[in-house]
Amino acid sequence: MAERSFAREVEQLRVPAGTTFRGEGILAVTKALLECGVGYVAGYQGAPISHLMDVLADARPILDELGVHFESSASEACAAATLAPSMTYPIRGAVTWKSTVGTNVASDALANLASGGVVGGSLIIVGEDYGEGSSIMQERTHAFAMKSQIWLLDPRPNLPSIVDAVHHGFALSEASQSPVMLELRIRACHVHGSFVTRENRPPTFSLRQALDAPKRDTSRIVLPPASFMHEHEKVLERWPAAVRYIETHQLNEFFDGDIDELGIVMLGGLYNNTLRALMHENLADLYGRSRIPLYVMNVAYPIIESEVLKFCEGKKAVLVIEEGQPDYHEQALNAVLRRAALPTLLHGKDLLSMAGEYTVAELRRGVREFAARYRPASVAVAAPISIRRERPASAAAAAGAAMRAAAPELAQVVPARPPGFCTGCPERPIFSSLTLVQQDLGEHHIAGDIGCHLFAAMPPFHLGASTMGYGLGASSAAAFGIPASKRAIAIMGDGGFWHNGLTSGIANAVFNKSDGVTIIVDNNYSAATGGQDIPSSRANNPQRSTHHPIEAAVRGVGVQWVRTITDTYDVKAMRQALREALTTEFQGPKVIIAQSECMLNRQRRERPQKAAATARGERVIKEKFGVDAAVCSGDHACMRVSGCPSLTLRPSGDPLKPDPVAQVDDSCVACGHCGEVADAAVLCPSFYRIEWVRNPRPWEVRLDRLRGALTGWLQRRRARSLADRSLYAPQRP
Amino acid sequence: MSSAQSLASGLARGADAARPITIAVLAMGGQGGGVLVDWIVDLAERNGYLAQSTSVPGVAQRTGATIYYVELLARAHAEARGLQPVFALMPVPGEVDIVIAAELMEAGRAMQRGLVNPARTTLIASSHREFATLEKVAPGNGVADGAAVLEAASRHARRFLHEDMQRLARSHGSVISAALFGALAGAGELPFSDAAYEDTIRRAGVSVEASLRAWRAAFEAMRSPIRSEPVFDPMQTEPLPLPARAASEAVEALRARVVGEFPAAAHPMLGAGLQRLLEYQDCDYAGEYLDRVSRIHRLSQDAGRAQAPLATLEAARWIAVAMSYDDIIRVADLKSRPERFERIRAEVGAEANAVVGTLEYFHPRVDEVCSLLPRSLGLRLEASAALRARLERWLAQGRRVRSHTLTGQVMLHALAGLRRWRRGSLRHHREQAHLERWLGLVTEALQVDYDLGVEVLRCRRLIKGYSDTHTRGLGKFDRLMAAARQLLGQPDAARRLAALREAALADAQGRALEQQWQSMGLTRE
After folding, report:
1. What angle do the packed helices B267-280 and B310-323 form, to 10 degrees?
2. Distance between the two ends of chain A, CA-based, in angstroms?
3. What's the pLDDT tens digit per position in B25-45?
4. Nearest beta carbon to residue A656 from set B113, B272, B410
5. Architecture, CATH, for domain A619-695
6. Which residues partner with A180 through β-bridges?
7. CA geometry: angle A398, A401, A403, nearest 5 deg
8. CA–CA min distance A183, chain B (Å)
9. Interchain contact, A258 vs B105, CB within 8 Å
10. Whole-prediction pTM
11. What is the CATH number assigned to the segment(s) A18-191+207-248?
12. How many CB atoms lie within 10 A of CB B118?
């Protein structure tokens, strides 16, 4: 079960044609897929396209009615390979993932797909995780499109344009027998807007029909001599076909303007922010009417030479707006102009920043400089004209300066707030244990992986030296399989494990006789992407087969030393297992499987159940942790080894103690880690657990009263003793 | 081209310079920023406006800081022109009408990002704090200066509206997003009626009543002409004034000594010190405390600081802390105080007769148990490897005590009762010796360099905690004492010792201290 329920959104997938659909961009894509008669959808979850997967997972009945097959793929490579039926049968297929990371993983299958070509429309929806909020390396998906001859759509970020791009994507794919990528930036995926729906269509040719009457065509398989033929086909037939379709259907857009000796070429995805930049420079209005003519490339690849020439003809200068490096569009457009011997000057990354997100502020600076250079009068206040913008010594310094330009007096005040482990996260005790073990055994090389566990690299843990890719934690420690005084430690999540870590990490370590230690974080879900089920999930999912233990898989590929810790909060057991793995005489890969359910998902499930049970009058124990302010010394060692968000500060309440003390706030889920770690680290005795019995049994009430009576005597005795030696009168409540 | 030309002249004249209403919401993962934005969008769309919202949630959802962005435009304006507006996907520095910050430092971040424009922006902030990890992990007080953010906001924003929305929402059984929605309505910057806001909450259909209560409370708070000034909590607690008469007869003589021997400025802190030591031990022990502070005070008088006796004030605090060192007896005492169980009930919101139990986490080390024994016995035990090993095995497991049971209470009371024998313990003997060495250095320093003496007193702040934490703090303290001896008689000694102390409190590993130490060219002993 995913983190979010999409019951409401699923209902929107059923609305009749002509209805106004309201929602996020990525949900609009989901609806458009059904309108296009898609036969199957597959993908791998990850921001910003997780919601597409989650909605389809919740939409089983409607998919069944339409005859659409939906798969949660094991990886992006798997998702891309799932498109194979469309190479042979006229079935429309769509796959989705987070890019560029997912496209990296998928590129083997994508290259094969693009080489053989398709007969059924094949759409690859990539969530371009670039710029603010991104969790991955900053690269462009564009490179993959160019190298494999996959057409790349980059529509304007509004719902009607995005939906149109889905419809045209399938048609373009079929017209040119090539797969098509639809690139959606993170903000476009989450943009809230509306569009008018069309009718859902069942697939015209079904997977069942294909299985009943299988076909094969050797010329579509990447084997010589067909593979050589494919190259020519791609360039000489499919490419021109794509160009014809794009020209005929006017997928790219031209907007007139009165300053017609200038022009701006931009990618569709950057349209809104560029228009806003123009508006702030008084070069356009809120409705997109620009004084400088615009050429909006809703198709980022291929470039339509005839359109480029038509737009640039007679213009003194044109500004190309594309984000990230390399500057593929600037290079390509320069080649087009040169070949046609057009004298139009091309600007791009000479006026805009060489690297980094094109925020409205950055775009504004770029268009202002462009206009100021050629039409100083059109710019509200003349900007100084320079041949080349001076670049600060370091890009990081430039980015930092931009961020800190305003309110400099707060630079030393406002603390950074990077993401971290949630309250009660079961991964926290794993890293607390590792911290404690390292205190005894010294620092080790720790290879990190992708997943929530990567937060261990941040304060307070500061653990993990690298992250090489999803599921590649163990592989990234492979070179350390040498004899040494200390063993390398690799971290891997259960999501990464099933994605590829089982083979690339574990089987590889067995085969190469590694002596390292791998910790597999087994929290029941692909947690970082939104809590989707995976093979080792312990939930019963009627649509998927779960309950496949990681330990069995690990042993199956030949690991002999395996310790499964079924409760990560048991710091002593965690510590013991880690210590043993790092010090044992045993030679060979050592795997520790650390199991406890993701707290975010567990709370989502249990909290309403407990509330309902309490309301029904059932006996429920409400737990919370607390700290005795008087006992806490304000050293905050507990926060350094735990870092739980619910563990926070408050004034000591004691004039003799100037440092704030610890307190546990209401968000506490009583996982017990703070008490556990205080105990294991022999830290301090201020922690206690509160157990409030709701709807107690009669005997419990009687026992409680009896205890009250007996301990009351002790308490009164103590109170008298304290009252006999007190300076202040007791404070009234 | 005609429409383009009319646009050109229009833009040149400044006509049709329609601008959307822009709203940025800064929140942390889990604060319901998404819910708030959904409400704003629904409110606008139902009331004649076109709306677009965007966000970059991703991993920031896991406790990190994130920004949501909304643009609104009157539908009639677009319909009159037969055109669709082009909304931006991110807030532009200087071009935001309303910034909503769900936490005080996030308001600071909004200003840092240039989103708050003094000519334009209404900044609505919750003045409560959710401490960042970096603030929490400092061994001292790492809390960011909230007053600086409040002060900056009053300068950077056109209007700055603030309230502790978290407290306000909780007190109405709701969450902060509802209070912020109420504050947005109360600010009156958007062209929507109060009823329209309330209808939005009803349409969402989740915890409607509680949300409406929190909405209303925040609305009123923004509208109320007399708004409470934000009290930024500096995490310090002021001592109570010295009472006119001691609560217990036995203590009155001590109280009278305070009045007779010390200047009024020191009375409250001396009162706090007395109370601590009376509870910790007894009247005699509290008397010894006054003797010690008195000796320091005389040095203040000798130094001509009788009017503003800084050393006396610091001595009043730190000698009390040093004399009430944290041992098992004190912990058992504090954990079995009668009022503690009422406090714990209040903490979970349980009524007086509810069945509430507690489980205490203890894990004393061998050293702590040994040092509790009478001096000679403790020394013998420490010296015997065999006995130590046996004790270590016995203490390998932490002790979980159920303090609400009779067994638990009897055990805690028995341990607390060891108070009577504390002065004979090995720990007490060691603490006294350490205390006297420290006060010896204080005395020496005060006579040579009064300010350095004050700083030597303040260094006591480094010793705190239990077990390893205590050992680490003690190590840092002893190092600073060595530094003080090296600095004695040197120019600027007090300021340098203070810098060393701040560095020692900056991180647990002592990296900052090492750096300071090196830069001052001090030698290791």
Report:
1. 10
2. 47
3. 999 888 889 999 999 999 999
4. B272
5. 2-Layer Sandwich (3.30)
6. A123, A151
7. 110
8. 16
9. no
10. 0.91
11. 3.40.50.970
12. 10
Confidence at residue A509, expressed as pLDDT on a 0 to 100 scale: 97
For chain A, residues with pLDDT lower than 50 are 381-393, 395-404, 732-733
Q: How confident is the model at residue B107 (pLDDT cuts 50, 70, 90)?
A: very high
C-alpha A32/C-alpha A198 separation (Å) is: 8
Which residue out of A368, A635, A701, A720 would a mutagenesis test of the B interface target, given it has the greatest number of B Cβ atoms within 10 Å? A635
Cβ count near B306 (within 10 Å)? 13
| Identity of the residue in A186, A635, A650 whose CB atom sits nearest the CB atom of B473 | A635
Instruction: Write out the two tokens for A196.
Output: 């008018």
B95 reaches A (C-beta below 8 A)? yes
Q: Which among B12, B247, B405 is the nearest to A707, CB-wise?
A: B405
Contact A273 B357 (CB under 8 A): no
d(CA B99, CA B93): 11
Q: Which two tokens stand for residue B355?
A: 């069945």
Task: Please state the length of chain B.
Answer: 525
Residue B511 contacts A, CB cutoff 8 Å: no
**What ipTM goes with this model?**
0.92
Q: Which residues, in sequence order, are CB contacts of A166 under 8 Å at separation 6+?
A: A29, A32, A33, A35, A36, A123, A182
CATH homologous superfamily of A428-601 equals Thiamin diphosphate (ThDP)-binding fold, Pyr/PP domains (3.40.50.970)
Q: Supply φ then ψ for residue A509, to 5 degrees.
A: -65, -40
Coil, strand, or helix at residue A133?
Answer: coil
CA-nearest of B133, B134, B125 to B106 is B125
pLDDT digits (tens, 9 = 90+) for B279-292: 999 999 999 999 99
Record: contact B361-A687, CB cut-off 8 A: yes
Other Cβ atoms less than 10 A from the Cβ of A55: the count is 24
Cα dist from A248 to A172, A237, A244, B264, B333, whole Å: 11, 16, 6, 92, 86
Token pair for A601: 């998902």
- The maximal CA–CA distance of chain A, rounded, in angstroms, is 102
Give pLDDT, residue A701.
95
- Overall CATH class of domain A255-395: alpha beta
Q: Considering chain B, what is the average pLDDT of its residues?
A: 91
